[in-house]
Amino acid sequence: MKIALSGIKPSGLPHIGNYLGMIRPALRLADSYQCLYFIADYHALTTLHNGSELRSHSLSVAATWLALGLDPTRNLLYRQSDVPEVMELAWILSCFTGKGLLDRAHAFKDAQAQQREISAGVYTYPILMAADILAFGADVVPVGRDQKQHLEMCRDIAQRFNHAYGDLLIVPEALIQEEVETIPGLDGRKMSKSYDNTVPMFLPAAQLRKLVMRIQTDSVPVEEPKLPESAAVFQLYRHFAGASDAEALAEKLRAGGTGWAVAKQALFDAMEASLGEARTRYREIMGDADKLAGVLRDGAERARALASARMARVRRAIGMGSSA
Ligand code: AMP
Ligand code: TRP
Prior knowledge:
Number of helices: 14
Bound molecules: adenosine monophosphate, tryptophan
Radius of gyration: 21 Å
Oligomer: single chain
CATH topology of the largest domain: Rossmann fold
């Protein structure tokens, strides 16, 4: 069976951009692929320097996958930091990664443009991401559109390595849902933990409703016709409610006489219908720390077995240890 692999950074609570852009499409692969979904905690360390928060967000990400129905016995759910082979491979791959390639990374260029301080971790982020993928021989990587360049870099790095040693690393394909554009956040920019504009997936209903009501809209008066497609609230609604309900709401908005508050209430209702039951499961899972730790321990063990088998071949090829 082919392998699908993807990760989420626990730099905050999982949000509906993660859900629509990656988690929902990734869960649909569970019947046709062996799925390896992990918590990219070492990646979160590039931005989050608070140990207890990082640990607690890691558990939230794990519980989110489980609450949404990922079966951890048929698939693998693990923490990146529990698989040290990934870090070992990251160093090896860094010797096959040109500085020019890292200089072109959007994430690094954005940080530079905003004059944020850039750590070596931010700069080499794409190498660690390539190691996450290549250590497991993943065939496909379901990700949101914002990760497309990272996947291209991963392919590039794998090809350079293979050029030297033969086809040892599997060159993965990105799996990007064409119909899911980048999901907008409360302020209309990309929903992102680093912009502080996210709608976390499993907030209590009252808090969720409050947040949905805060989504920015234009100031066209209730009675005037509106442009639904340009509004974040409508884009989000379309993903939760489906095409025909979305078209019905769009017609009302275009006709005038329907205010944005109506669209926001519709979005809240559609989110409750999609995620309400999962929230109950999420709470239960978060309430049983021992069980959750057990799932992650089991995932770590199985993930390490996979990665160490591949790493043994990589070490042999590059001339480490004995050749036998
Ligand atoms: P991150 O939270 O940055 O680790 O992202 C985890 C996954 O969610 C990645 O595959 C991202 O591409 C996806 N993702 C994050 N934010 C968005 C967004 N605003 N729209 C679509 N996909 C997203
Ligand atoms: N960089 C990804 C993000 O910010 C998270 C990630 C880390 C990842 N390693 C990965 C995604 C490997 C897919 C495969 O969203």
